[in-house]
Design a protein that fits this description.
CATH superfamily of the largest domain: ATP-grasp fold, B domain
Strand order of the largest sheet: 13-12-9-10-11-14-16-15
Largest sheet: 8 strands, antiparallel
Distance between the termini: 41 Å
Shape: globular
Radius of gyration: 21 Å
Order of helices and strands: EHEEHEHHHEHEEHEEEHEHEEHHEEEH
Mean pLDDT: 93
Length: 405
Amino acid sequence: MTDQNSTDRPVTILCLASYFKGTTFLTAAKQAGCRVVLVTREKLHNEPWPWDSIDDVFYMPQLAKQPDIIYAVAYFMRGKAVDQIIPLDDYDVLTVAALREHFRLPNMGESVMRHFRDKLAMRVKARQEGFRVPEFTAVFNYDQLREFMDRVPPPWLLKPRAEAGAMGIKRMDHSEMLWRKLDELGDLQSYFLLEQYVAGPVYHVDAIVWRGKVVFATAHQYLQPPIDVAHDGGVFVTRTMPRKEKETKALLKMHNQLILALGMERGVAHTEFIKGADGEFYFLETAARVGGANIEQLVEASSGINLWAEWAKLETAALRGQEYQVPEDKGAYAGVMICLARQEWPDLSGYQDPEIVYRVHKQQHAGLILASPQQERVEQLIRDYSQRFAQDFLAVAPPLDTAPT
């Protein structure tokens, strides 16, 4: 069964990219025989996009502005039909959902996509479906806010509903601190939520979903919670969890049930959980995209599966009415470490262990990905390298409230 009427014309996938990412998706879609259209921002025209894999490219000042983006896509579609629209960045997720709704294209529309972008919507839905989440409240009604603060002891986290990751999150230590911040926000208050601060280790599961079933999922644990690294500085580290342990299996089971309860029919997902003092996993947030911070290379190093490429393959298969088969997980272990660096182009030549499979090449950043059949070896190298990174490269900068424009 196909999402679109079968025709002899090539499948056309239009990709929105507010930031430079998703190049592997573009290449894989072209290799699958698709016509690939890229819509990105004018300031990104000099980035090294895989031009051989792109049939058409269009530039706009910004992609989220309505109705400009609808007008632009509609103008393009007068001459060429589009079968699917894909967001390559978190900030494009809701824009793509609106475009799918307007042009009646398949996969998640605005209501379901909010479960994978709006931090309030995903928490409300998860709680309704019976999953554990930290205590939270919308920032709508002041009486409800007061009730929440009386019932839930501080500190609390004031979180923007539509920012990516830890961006813009503020710790509130007492009620007066919150009221002052809300005064600053003014009419923007309703775009935030207030959440109980839960201390504990943080985990992420990266997954592929096909026809309402999780066909691949792999679990990793951060060395430090990402919010701590974002706000206090440090080396960002995450690595594969022991594959056969009960804790890992319990986390994957909870994740697989959650993703389907949130309404994902097909695609990729990056989902975070925290373990509370009671030893239970709590859902933090999810996104219908490949995780950032070199998660793509991390997952590929441990499993042999490239999430961007598989996303392109499954979307193409769906549009053609074909079956999709995920590759076999090779079952290895991997870890990624990356930090803001004092040097413009850090020298990583002093790191030469054979387990290094990828070196991050990004200005003012130092980063490595390690892989081994043995989980203990990855842990050993992470302990060693993270200390060395702190001495050799680490720089600290104030956290950003919003993504750079």
